[in-house]
From TrEMBL:
One annotated GO molecular function: oxidoreductase activity
Phylogenetic classification of the source organism: Bacteria, Bacillati, Actinomycetota, Actinomycetes, Mycobacteriales
The UniProt record lists the keyword Nucleus: no
Protein name, per record: Nucleoside-diphosphate-sugar epimerase
Domain NAD-dependent epimerase/dehydratase positions: 3-181
């Protein structure tokens, strides 16, 4: 059984391809033909086939699907925050239109593949933790408050309407123990503008990969499943980055952001804690707790840890001056305003 993975060289894609290969599945990894992906392709597990395609091109998508004739498609390719806010047009083409091209090509196959769609808890929109206390479930009504949530919800609708078997996985905050690749200024600035008391369910990318691999065969057709870690992953946004930084040795290295406004139902980012009872029962993917993830991060940092520990005060001083709310006047975070000022209009598109 061939599994086609789109967005195969991204954070989730790389782990998913590795998981499928380790499970002995036949995998075709697809992504954009760019130098970084060519380099990554050279390091793939043996037996994994690579096919480059720009999914915004319907003819390329048709070719990809008819040549691979997959029994399952794991569709991960997307333009995600924060880049999505700077590239609205491109993002719609990738996040929504390309999903439509893939579904159309897949539904035309003599035996249409099972389609496993990557979605996000961003579909639920901003959730003020002072007023909303229930956990997210697949029955919680979606109510996107930004472009990303709107794109993800629109692509879910396309999947549900398609004439093939489907499963939708809504992911929480995906974490990796290979942090170095993700530590860039844009990502740190983005995390720094989110309300520190925003609730967030995180999940280890290797567990996300297990969930996607399992969703290609498990009896979960037509289900929408929430993919977060075990209860130890129910965290507050402000504690996530600082705990990872501390695990690497950068104790107190990150500046402290601002809390969310308890009196506003909109000035919150689109994350919350989720109930993963059903997804764990169906897919059995939770293998890495939050404390384990931190211990492994520390171990992987190895000899650099004591050096980073020494550098922490300097890192803090530099990053504080470049933090989103440096010298901010208000007492509360303004995540959407800060995103608009740095990247562009985050408001949802009506699709
Ligand atoms: N990372 C998270 O925390 C998170 C949370 C919720 C949902 N998700 C969803 O999971 C999926 C994977 O996310 P990720 O973190 O691995 O993202 P990523 O940005 O690391 O990977 C996305 C991949 O899509 C590819 N891509 C972009 N445009 C393309 C195009 N036109 N044609 C072909 N490929 C294209 C990129 O090259 C990249 O490799 C996405 O659908 C995302 O919305 C991620």
């Amino acid at each position: 059984m061939t599994v086609l993975v789109t967005g195969a060289f991204g954070l989730v894609g790389s782990a998913t391809v590795r998981q499928l290969a380790a499970d002995g599945r036949k995998v075709v990894a697809s992504d954009l033909d760019i130098p970084a992906n060519r380099e990554a392709a050279a390091k793939l597990p043996s037996g994994v086939e690579v096919r480059y395609a720009d999914l915004t091109d319907p003819a390329a998508v048709d070719n990809l699907i008819s040549n691979v004739a997959p029994e399952a498609v794991i569709h991960l390719a997307a333009v995600i925050p924060p880049l999505i806010y700077a590239r609205r047009e491109l993002a719609r083409k990738v996040n929504v239109d390309a999903t439509g091209h893939l579904l159309a090509a897949a539904a035309k196959q003599a035996t249409p593949p099972r389609f496993v769609q990557a979605s996000s808890i961003a579909v639920y929109g901003a959730r003020n933790p002072h007023r909303i206390t229930d956990l997210l479930t697949s029955d919680t009504p979606p109510n996107p408050s930004d472009l990303y949530g709107a794109h993800k919800l629109a692509s879910e609708r396309l999947v549900r309407a398609a004439e093939l078997d489907w499963v939708i996985l809504r992911l929480g905050g995906v974490m990796t123990v290979e942090v170095a690749g993700l530590m860039n200024f844009d990502n740190m600035y983005f995390e720094g503008l989110l309300p520190t008391d925003n609730r967030l369910s995180t999940v280890d990318v290797r567990d996300v990969a297990r969930a996607f691999a399992a969703a290609t065969t498990a009896p979960v057709l037509g289900e929408t499943l929430l993919i977060g870690g075990d209860d130890s992953h129910r965290l507050l946004q402000g504690d996530v980055g600082s705990a990872v930084a501390a695990a690497m040795g950068l104790v107190g290295g990150l500046p402290v952001g601002l809390k969310g406004n308890p009196n506003s139902d909109t000035d919150w980012f689109a994350t919350d804690w989720m109930d993963t009872t059903r997804s764990q029962e169906a897919l059995g993917f939770q293998h890495h707790s939050w404390p384990d993830l931190l211990i492994e991060t520390a171990e992987r940092t190895g000899w650099k840890r004591p050096l980073l520990r020494l550098a922490a005060p300097l890192a803090h001083a530099i990053l504080q001056r470049r933090a989103p709310y440096y010298r901010a006047e208000g007492p509360y975070a303004d995540p959407w305003g800060a995103i608009a000022a740095k990247w562009g209009d985050p408001s949802p598109e009506h699709l």
